[in-house]
Amino acid sequence: MADVVTERRGVPVLVCGEEGVRIAGVQDALDVIGSAFSRAEVVAVPVARLDERFFELRSGLAGEILQKFVNYRIRLAVVGDISAYVAASKAFRDLVRESDRGDGTWFVADLDALDARLG
């Protein structure tokens, strides 16, 4: 599936396909934000599209990417199974817990769970 803007629960969402360009740096994140800008309020990125360094908080990649989404006022939903990353890192587990309490970044199991958050 290619990246496509669709309405989910009345909210325009850029749903990124799993086979797209891997988000391995800030410029990759900015490219996705650019695709969403003025067309979508939320970007749904599959776990498979994120570079492994995203899940290693000491790399700084997650912080840089999340900050870009905040700066451009576009919400980010990381979609898929992150259980191995949560089990491997208390810091990442804390990031997920805090993010899911807010409204800017969510970690959801699938698009149905995203719909529930949007509803």
Assign the CATH class: Alpha Beta
Order of helices and strands: EEHEHEHHEH
Q: What would the average pLDDT be, to the nearest integer?
A: 97
> What is the level-2 CATH architecture name?
2-Layer Sandwich
Give the strand order, joined by hyphens, for the main sheet. Answer: 1-2-3-4-5
Poorly predicted ranges? none
Largest sheet, described in full? 5 strands, mixed
Query: What's the CATH topology name?
Result: Transcription Regulator spoIIAA
The total of helices stands at 5
Helix content: 40-55%
- What oligomeric state do these chains adopt? single chain
Q: What topology does this entry show?
A:
Blueprint: E1 4-8, E2 11-15, H1 26-36, E3 42-46, H2 61-71, E4 75-79, H3 83-88, H4 90-101, E5 105-108, H5 111-118
Parallel strand pairs: 2-3, 3-4, 4-5
Antiparallel strand pairs: 1-2
Gist of the model:
By secondary structure, the chain is an alpha/beta fold. It is built from five helices and five strands; from the N terminus they run E-E-H-E-H-E-H-H-E-H.
